[in-house]
Amino acid sequence: MIEIERKFLVKNTNFKAQATNKTKIVQGFLNTHKARTVRVRIKGDVGFLTVKGKTSESGLSRFEWEKQITLNEATSLLNICEPGVIDKIRYEVQVKNHTFEIDEFFGDNQGLIVAEVELNDENEAFEKPSWLGDEVTGNVKYYNSQLSKHPFCNW
Amino acid sequence: MIEIERKFLVKNTNFKAQATNKTKIVQGFLNTHKARTVRVRIKGDVGFLTVKGKTSESGLSRFEWEKQITLNEATSLLNICEPGVIDKIRYEVQVKNHTFEIDEFFGDNQGLIVAEVELNDENEAFEKPSWLGDEVTGNVKYYNSQLSKHPFCNW
């Protein structure tokens, strides 16, 4: 499956009042190579293993494959991940017919908040809420795989 | 799950007459780091994703986690693996109460044949068939993850 997503910084926390969902996420990486990341995630009480490929030339789309695993499996796999586990809360905010996923980071990435919106094609229009900041789509330093190695606190 | 395995070279192909099973295996790696390999395998017409951790100090045991996936999923994931896909035929040979898995390699690893036996504990005794050669347990260059990067033809 190919995912098309645009990513933005978030200017303030006004989005929290509009959130329909809030989930704690802890994740680590079995590989952070740009051509093939392998992520282990605990989202609430469910585990996921996710493989992502290289970003397209436009920077917008990327191969993604995800499998649900148990909490126990995810916990075992997190133990052997690269150092730099990521800890964040994900908020979901509905804006017209699009859902924004907003990640507020903690730990070494405290202070960073980013929003992602998934699109059906690279040119699809969407409403931009007032709290949405600069676009950072395709900027490698905002990839979670990079945030685990080069966290926001060191920028 | 922790696996305890011992690995040996194979001196000749006499084992083929004793084989109870023979399966073609094609596999690639999403990561070949010694502390966390991620393998994509097609075995016959089934796919597997396998994560292995670091080998224990004794060189005999290693964390291993495996999930069955579809042939289509495995094929998609093989596309984004590191260069150096491994192509081999696996024979299973029963020797008394132990099963030896014997891999005959092709492509860049043609000429290499290795046998593995799985044990319940590190000191378990087992019968050694006449075709079994030198032990190479824990020798990193015989790891499939290393054979994909540094194949037998270059040794």
Automatic annotation (TrEMBL), chains A, B:
It comes from the Bacteria. Residues 1-149 form the CYTH domain. SUPFAM superfamilies: CYTH-like phosphatases. InterPro entries: CYTH-like_dom_sf, CYTH_domain, NeuTTM/CthTTM-like. PANTHER family: SLR0698 PROTEIN (PTHR40114). This is CYTH domain-containing protein.
